[in-house]
Amino acid sequence: MAASSLRIALIQQDTVWQDPEANLARARVFVQAAAKAGARVAVFPELFTLGFTMAPEPFAESLPGQTSDALSALSREFNLYLIGTAVEANAPHPRNAAFVTGPDGTLIATYRKIHPFSYGEENRHYSGGTECPLFKIDGIPCGLQICYDLRFPEPFRSLAGRGAEVVFIPANWPQRRISAWSTLLAARAIENQMAVCGVNRVGRDPHLEYPGCSAIHDGFGEIIAAGDASEGLVVGDLDLLKLRAWRERFPALRDRRPEVYADLALPDGPTKTGGF
Question: Is 191 a catalytic residue?
Answer without folding.
Answer: no
